[in-house]
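User: I've been going back and forth on whether these two constructs are worth ordering. Before I decide, could you fold them both?

Assistant: Sure. I'll take them in the order you sent them. The first construct and its C-alpha cells:
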Amino acid sequence: MFQRSKGWIPGLLSKPKNPHSLEHLKYLHSLLCKNQTVTEANRSLLVETLRSISEILIWGDQNDSSVFDFFLEKNMLSFFLRYLQQKSGRFICVQLLQTLNILFENIRNETSLYYLLSNNHINSIIVHKFDFSDEEVMAYYISFLKTLSFKLNRHTIHFFYNEHTNDFALYTEAIKFFNHSEAMVRIAVRTITLNVYRVDDKAMLRYIRNRTAAPYFSNLVWFIGNHILDLDMCVRNDADHQSRDRLADLVAEHLDHLHYLNDILCLNIDALNDVLTDQILNRLLIPLYVYSLTMRKRAADRLGDRKHVSSVVSLFLLSQVFLIISYAPLVRQLAEIIFQGEISLSRKEASPEMRVREFVPPAETLEKTLESNRGRQDAADDNELPQSPSSEVFSGGEDMSSPNQNSTDEEKLLSTLGRSHRMDMPGPTSAEQGPATFSLDNRPYLEAVFNALECTENDYEALFALCLLYAMGHNEEGIHQELMDSVLMPTERCETKDHYNVLLVERLIRIINLACQHGSKVRLSTLELTIRLLKLLVYKEDQSFLQDRHLACIENARECSTQLLRNFYKSEEIFLDMFEDEYTQMINRPLNVEYLTMDASILLPPTGTPLTGIDFNKRLPCGEVERSRRVGYT
C-alpha cells in the first residue's frame, strides 16, 4: 500500500501521465532544480528534459497561457544560461540551442514572445563563447540567431538593441561570421542583417551606421574581392574544363553577393547606402573590376603588383553587376566611369587622397573593430553622417573640390557624381551630339570593351563585351537615357534612333559577317546576342534606322549564310528536320542574357566537344551534323 513507485527520487514530483500539461512542466522544473550541475550521470536526463521543455512551451503557447506564466515565474531560462556557463560539453550546448531555436521558431503568441525576451537571458546566451569549431554547435547557433531575426519588429527590437549601453548583440555577433567557410552560415548572416535593416527604428539604424557600417562593409568588400581573385585563378588554371564544378560554385557565390548588396541598397536607407556605395565603388568595382579592363595596355613596371583579374573575368563580372544591381547612384557612377574616362588610381607619387581607390584590406578585422567599439558612447550628433575613410574623399571638402588639387579631370568628375548622385544629371542628347563627335580617345575603359568585340581568333572576349553592353542598355532603373546618349547608344526608351554609335554598329556587323563564314569560331549565343544588341541600337517599332552602307553589309552576311545553307541542304538527308528543330527551339527558347551570365562554363575558353555537357549554342560545333545545325540556326 505504501510502496514507492519505481524510479522515485526524494523531493521530486511524480511524473504526470499527460506530457502536455502544466503539471508536466512543473515536474520538468523540479528535475532542473535537482540537477543544477551537469555531470556524466545526469547529462542524458538533462538533454531529454530540455527537449521536453520546448515541446510543452509550444503547446502552452497555443493552448494554455498558464504554462508560460509558470515558465516566467520560475525564471527557467536562467537554468539554460547556468548550464552553458558550466562548459558542460557539446551535447548540452547543442540541445540548448536546438531547444531555443524550436521554441522561438514556433511561438505565435506575442505575449509569450515578450515573456521569453523580457529578461536579458537571450542576449547573454547570444554572447556566450561557444565552441564554434564544432560544426553542429555552429549550425544550431547561427540558425538560432536567424530565427530571432525573423521576430524583429519595432516592438521587439528593444529587447535586443540597448540604446543606453549602445549594444546590439544579435547583430554584432552575427556579422562576425560574414566570411565563414561554410556557405550556409554566410547565407544566414545575410538573412539576419537584412532582417535587422528592415526594422524601422531610427536609434538602432543610427547605431549600425555609426558603429558597424564602415567596418562591416569594408571587410565584406575585401572578402568579395578575394573571392573574385579565386574565381579568376580558377579560370586561368582550367583551360581543360576539369574544375567546372568549383568554378560554378564561385560564380554562384558572386551572384549571391551581388543580390545581397542590391537587397541592402533597395531598402533605401540613405545613411547605409552612402557608405556601402562608397565602399563598393572605391574598394572593389573601380580598382578591381574596371581597372582590369585595361591591364594589357599598361606598362609592366607600372603598378605591376596591383591585384587584378583577366579582362574576360572583368567583363563577365561587370555584366552581372549591371544585370543585378538597380540602385541608381551606384550604377550611374559606374557607367559614367566606363563611358567617360579613366579614373586615376593611386600611384607612388600620388597624394594620400588619391590612394582610396585601391583594393586593399581594411585597417583591422571586423571582430577587432567591434570589440573596440563595444559599449562606447556616440559623440557624433544624431543627424551627422559618419564617414568611412574613403567616403571622406567624396564629402565635398576643399581638398577634392579645389581646382588646385593635384587630381585628374576624371577624379573631379567622380567627386562631383558622389556629391550629387541622388539627382538625375542630364547629359548631352543625341540631337546635340552627332555621330561625328563620338571618339574613343581618352575613353580607355570603353575602348577596351569595344576592342573585346574583335573576333580575330574566337569570340571568347566578345561574348562578355556584348553581355556588358546589353546589361547597361537594359538597366533602366539605374542608367538614365542621357548618359547612354553621351556615347550614342539608343535604347528602347528613345523615341527615335537617328544617331547611333557607328563604331559599335560596325563591330557588331563584323561579328555577324564572321558568324556567317564557313568554319566560323563565333558561337550561336554570341551571334544571337549581337543581333539583339544591334536591334536595340538601330531598330524601333518595325522601323530600321541603319545607314545604307550598314544595311548592305547585313544583306551581304545574309547572302553568305544562305549560300552555306544551300550546301548543307544538298548533302544532308535529314537537313529539313534539323532546320525545323532549330527554328522551333529558337522561337520557343530565345536567349536569356540573365541566365547566360549565370553559366560558369562560358568563362572557360570555347570548346567544340559535346562531352563537356555545355549547351550547343554556347560551344563550337563538332562534326558535320552539328555544323549543319549551326548553319540552320544562323
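The second construct, handled the same way:
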Amino acid sequence: MIPRVFVCHLSLLRDLIVFAASIAISSRLTSSRHSATSEQQQQQQIIVDTSTATSTTTKKTHHHFEADAKLLESLQNGTSRDASERVCTVDDHNRPTLYGHDRRDVRLHNLWHRATYCIILHHDDSSNETTSVSLLVQRRSQTKDYCPGKLDPTPGGVVGFDESYDENALRELEEEMGIQPVLIQHSDESNKTNSNNSDSGTTCTIRTTMQGLFNFPYEDDRVRCWGRLYEVIYRGPLSDIRIQKEEVDEVLSIPFHQVNHLLQTKPHDWTPDSVYALRLYLQHTHDRRLMRQTSSSLSIERYRLRSKPRVIFFDCDDCLYFDNWKLANQITQKIDQWCTAKGLPTGEAYELYKRHGTALKGLLAEGYMDHCERTIDKFLLAVHNVQYHSLSRDEELRQMLMRLDPQVPKYIFTASARHHAERCLDKLGIRDMFCDIIDTKACGFVNTKYSSEAFEIAMRIAGVDDAESCLFLDDSVKNIQAGQRFGWRCVLVGRIGRDCGTPITTEGHAEHEIDRIHDFEKVFPELFV
C-alpha cells in the first residue's frame, strides 16, 4: 500500500510540472513588469523622502486610480483603510528607511516597501479521498487600498515599520485566516511532520508549517515592493479557516490546473504582483526538484524569473532524430576500420570516444594521429562515408521548429563534421531552420562538448556573452553535465542509453529530460509562437 503522504507529494509534483509548463503562456496576459535598478545607483541613499517622488510616478499612480475615484479620494484625504499605519519602506536595494512611511503615502507615491507572499498548499488530511494538492486563494476585501476584490494566490501583507518578514507573515495568516503555522528554518521533512506540544507535553502532528524561500523585487506602475515568499503547508479542512471580513471576502481551495485556467481566461481578476510571485515559486520548485544549485544571478536574496533564452543550440545525431543508433553504428564501424588499419585493436575506437568525447580527440590526444588539418579532414571524410537510408523527412519536427520564436536564433552544435550534419539536416528537411553549424573543426578538433572551451567557442560564434541565456539540447548525459557546469540551461533528449539500453538521467543537471525532440514544445512553451 502506498502511503498517502507519498501519493500527495506525487500529486503535487505532477500538478506543479503541468502548471509550470503552461503558466508562462498566461504571463503574456499579465501586465506586470520586473526591473532591477543598477547597483551603482543611490549607494548612499538610505532615507526615502516622499517629497522627492517624481511627477511621472504620481501621474502613473493616479492614472491607475482613475477607475476608482473614491479610492483615490480616500487616499488623498487620509481616510482609506489603515491610512496612517506605519509601513517598512526601503530603497530599491531593500535597505530600510529610518522612519518608514504612512500606508497612504506608500500607495499614493508608489514607494518601495516590504511585503510578504504565502503560497498555501492545501492537503485536507480529514478527507478519505486522495486528491491533488490545491492552492488556497483569497478574494481581497472591496475596502482594500490595493486591488480590492481581486483574487490573491499568495496571501500575505505589507510589512509594518520595525516588523520582520517572518513576524508579518505569521501575523497576517493568523489575523486573516486563523492559520497558525509553525515556522521552520530548513527543509528537513522530520521538522514538517512532528513537534512537541508545549501544552500536553506529548508529540503531535503539525497541521500547518511555513518556510521562507527567497526575497524578490517587484515593480509596476501601481506597486514597488521587496517581497519575501513563503511556502505554507495547510493540512486542515477548509471549514476550519476563519476569515477576517475586513480584509478577506472569501478563501477558495483551487486545484493548480484550475488556477492556471482562470489566469488565462480572466487575467485581470488577479493581483499582478501575486501572480508574479506564483511564477517565481513554480520556477524555484522546479529547481529544487532538479536539485539545481542557485546561481549568483538567481540569488535567494534577489530572486527573479530567468530571462528568456537568447539562443538555442541543438545537437544533431540521436537528438534531432532517433534511428535506433543505426547511423551512429555505421560511423563507429568506419572509425573502427580506420583504427584497425593503423594497428589499433578492434573496439578501441568506441573506447576512445567514451574516454575523450570523440574518437578524433582520442586519436589526437593519445598520439595515433598527427595534428594536421589535411590529415584530419581526410579522416572525417572517410568515417562519414555512410548511408543515410535510416533518415527521412520529418514534417512534425519541421513544423515545431517553425513555431519557435524567430527572434531566438538556432544553431547546430555537433561533435561531428559539418558535411555530415548538413546531410542529416537535408534528409530531415530542416537545414534551412538553422543559422549555422558549429562542428568539430569550428571547435579546434580537440575541444569536445566535454570541455568548457567548446561552449565558449559556440557562444562566441553565436554572439552571446551570458551563459545562462543559452539553451542546449543533447542526447549525451556527459555533454549535458558539462553544459550545465558552464552555466547553460540544458534539456536531455532521449532517456534510453546507447550502451546500456536502460533508462538514463542527468541527475539534476538538465532542467528537463524528454523522450524525443518533438516534446521540446511541452517543456518550453514560452519559446513558441
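Notes on the second construct follow. The first helix runs from residue 4 to 26. The longest strand covers residues 208-219.
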